[in-house]
Amino acid sequence: MKRLLVTGGCGFIGSNFVRLALQQLPDCRLVNLDKLTYAGNHENLKDIANDPRYRFVKGDITDGTLLEKLFAEEQIDTVIHFAAESHVDRSITGPAEFIQTNIVGTFTLLEAARKYWLADNKDSSQCRFLHVSTDEVYGSLGDTGYFTEETPYDPRSPYSSSKASSDHLVNAYFHTYGLPILMTNCSNNYGPYHFPEKLIPLILNNALNGKDLPVYGDGKNVRDWLYVVDHCEAILTVVLNGTIGETYNVGGNNEKQNIEIVTTICDLLDQKVGLLPDGEARRTLIRYVTDRPGHDRRYAIDASKIKKELGWSPAVTFEEGILKTVDWYLDNPEWISAVLDGSYQNYYEEMYGNR
Ligand code: NAD
Ligand code: DAU
Q1: Taking the model in full, what pTM does it have?
Q2: Which of 33, 128, 227, 286 could form a disulfide with 321 if both were Cys (CB 3.0 to 4.6 A apart)?
């Protein structure tokens, strides 16, 4: 029986992961520690909230006392560390929180795991600490080439630098203390529960409501898109079967220019819900706007290591995944409106009161 601590389980990827882990690990105990920042939505997990194997704890990964208590109380043997400030644009306007959560928070979590797992006479052979990281630590590619696990780090934004720092700390705890770590560096995810300030859900929501569709710069920046459940499957594969101390790159082998993403969503919505009220196609809403400062031009992952060593490859094509995503947002208008009007932040108090 695995006893998992998932951090950031109320966010986009974390909530998809918690659901998948409970499905695929019938004997597990799963504790979800989340601060419920603007990005944490307790409603994302309302369907599993009463599962007897599941416990939610509202708390901060920079709180070492809380972490030590949780490790001991729940006898945690596996950590899946998602909690982070994750939005590049927010890191440009307000980097402080990124340093605090992504660097100090990861350090505090590593310390708690070290103290609990590597204490005298403890058998830590079954323990695992999986750090969920990003391809952005590798910097920006030109027109050709791919990020491999050997690509030197070259982060450009406060977000990616803070993630790079946390990656280095995680590796340092392996080399210095023998903490049983694993790491994944993944490309852009998309799918259900994606917070509507990131490209795909933002465009979807604006296009549905006839609002402008902001495209940064010339729209030709390239991202490698992966359906979120495929990423979660990769994380489970690595935590169950990966080699301790190793990093695995995870990607969709699915490069798209931003403008292609935007026009695809416009065309799909035109087909599914009809043209705009004035009879125009949704592509007419596209507006080229000032570029993101330091905007990385191209990301592309070489995911051959995880495929060769652990047998993982994406199951969902972009064509399937984007259709599933559009359908999910069309089927869940109340989820989007609760996020947009802020009422999603009351959900935790409504369910648990002020604790
Ligand atoms: P998200 O912003 O949707 O969710 C982050 C979650 O962490 C939220 O629930 C938030 O409340 C929680 N959190 C933030 N600060 C916290 C703190 N101090 N203590 C406890 N909880 C805290 O992020 P996401 O898109 O789901 O990404 C999850 C992880 O995956 C991040 O580490 C991110 O760097 C990484 N990642 C994301 C992508 C992507 O495309 N979204 C790709 C690769 C890697
Ligand atoms: O590559 C993995 C990373 O992907 C993760 O580590 C990050 O946590 C995640 O947020 C994501 O970062 P991006 O910056 O790539 O995602 P975002 O959705 O913000 O932007 C995707 C691309 O679309 C990027 O090139 C910027 C562009 N963009 C974004 C927004 C919000 C626009 O053109 N217009 C927009 O309004």
Answers
A1: 0.98
A2: 227
